[in-house]
Amino acid sequence: MCNKSQQNSTRTAKRMKKNFCRHTTNRPFSLVSLIGAVGLTMIAASLAAADTTKLTVRGSGLPVPRFGTLKFDEANLRTGPGREYPVLWQYRKAGLPLLVDAEFGIWRKVVDHEGTSGWIHGAGLSLKRMALVRTHMAEIHDDDNAESPVIALAERNALVNLESCPREWCRISTETVKGWIRRQAIWGLLADESLE
């Protein structure tokens, strides 16, 4: 806080005053200030780490986040990790890929391709890798480059088996087609994940 003897004012063409303080004290940097600054830095670093760290309490021991798929044609998405929590949604498609975001005992917090999140019993999930086509009429190529012939088109929301995805192209298969699709056209992989 400034007292009147420390205030300076300047005038503009509109006769408005702008007040500012000039600190004239030359106190040495105190140890308390240093400890406070270090403490704030550590708190900020731990908050930043908390954004990337995912909750795992007595879980499966598998890495989190990861992708899994629905094992059954019916699975309830709940508001919390237990049967006492209300059902938000019921999935009715086995093989649907879900992002496992957290674990709590036998429950898995998942996120679907539309961003809906909730909890599913771990027994309802499989480690089988599937992908969901995100784009309208995605091209499936014979080889992992754009110059190779297009052998099929996949509609939006089609489920495909995910065999490998080393870089930009992913090897997929269905009951009738095997080929390569661009990574951006599917949902079911982490951004930096390489699937061999």
Question: What this model shows, in words?
Answer:
By secondary structure, the protein is mainly beta. Among the domains are: 56-128, SH3 type barrels (Roll); 131-187, SH3 Domains (SH3 type barrels, Roll), CATH 2.30.30.40. 11% of the residues lie in helices and 39% in strands. Strands 3, 4, 7, 8, 9 and 10 form a six-stranded mixed sheet that branches. It has a five-stranded antiparallel sheet with strand order 16-15-14-11-17, with no helix packed on it. A two-stranded antiparallel sheet has the order 1-2. Strand 5 (75-78) and strand 6 form a beta hairpin. The longest helix is centred in the N-terminal third of the chain and has 22 residues, at 31-52. Mean pLDDT is 80; it is low at 1-52.
